[in-house]
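Have a close read of this protein, sequence plus structure tokens, and explain what the tokens say about the fold. Thanks in advance:
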Amino acid sequence: MEDVFNLDGSLFKKLLISGADNLNRHRIVVNNLNVFPIPDGDTGDNMTMTISHGVSEIKDYEENNIGLMSKKIARGMLFGARGNSGVILSQIFRGIADGLKDIEKANSVELANAFISGYERAYKMVVNPVEGTILTVAKNASNKTKSAVSEKTSINEFFKLYLDFANEALKETINQLDCLKKANVIDSGGAGYVYIIEGMLRYFNSDANYANYILNYKFEREHYVSNIGDNLKEYAIISVCNGDGLRELFVNLGCDYIINGGQTMNPSTEDFIKAFDLVNAKNIVVLPNNSNIILAARQAKELYENANIIIINSKTIAEGLSAMSLVNYDDPSFVDEMEEAIKNVTTGEVTYAVRDAIIDGVEIKKNEFMAIEGKHLIYKANDKYDCLKGLIDFEVKNNNKEIINVIFGKDIVEDEINEFCENLMNEIKNIEINTVSGMQDIYSFIVAFE
């Protein structure tokens, strides 16, 4: 393609579709960059579904004004955003749209300013931004490109420069975060972003008609309604979880609406907004129950105007259940008590390794079982029950835990876990172990220590 010096809405649409196509082609590569070898490597999926929503928004939209086109793209991505990486990506494009809002055709300087607006918007969205992530890649690439271009720089050259700087920044992420350095990998979100930029540049260098490519990557699932009526309620509670047993637990504790999701299946911003509409309440309390879902919930809160949205920062199922146990609609201070409750819960989990890795200096082989607390490896073994025992031993000895609630998954036989826990209580004095079926995927055991 010949050099282009002004980027209009029609060309920007084609570039975005090409970028989405390239990310989709490499999404498994991005997934596999997950630092911790548990089955949650879904960064590529989340970013792909986020940008896919933006593509869907402009599928039948014809507009030469880049300000209007970028606004439409940003809207689609905001509502389709999933996972932390997807939310940050949507905020980058929202900021780009802010930077282009009064522009009909953008030259390279105007485009560079818009990309700076993009990363600045994304940084504001994240409460505690961490360097060595997609944020850093977007920031460094945007700032260096801004310094390198002039009004005489073609749009083609702009994206070539931007990609070069983005790749430089991506390579540096391995030295900016200890977890990346130990795992010897680059940041997955940053890699996904680079693939998008690479796809945009490829549009200029390829004969392929990416303009006719529409991403078809859907994530449909059923959600569960517990308590919804026509009358406007004072309070309603929305929780995210996966598994028939977990859903029943939350419903029995008073949850009004369950968004079916969690590890490897993060709900979108739009999923939350639809739930907000359905529960019909003045005040809506949200339990994300996963650290990779909190940003999408916050983004939904920012976009929603018809109720007071209260996000409880529950990062695990165990924290969410603990918070639910304190719900008392007769006393509005229960929200503060929910926040306090999650601080008093330690969550351990038993799952399997999806690849070989070294964690905290310990070598893990694919398919070995791991007992983890947050991102810390507590114990490893070839048997999931051995891992559970190692986890409980650790928490009792090191953190003086006495009340232990074991939520067991689909792969566990109830009689076996009950017998195991009875034997363990006889072996370890002064502990109480309760078991409940969660029927969850991924984790054989989710363990709440109090």
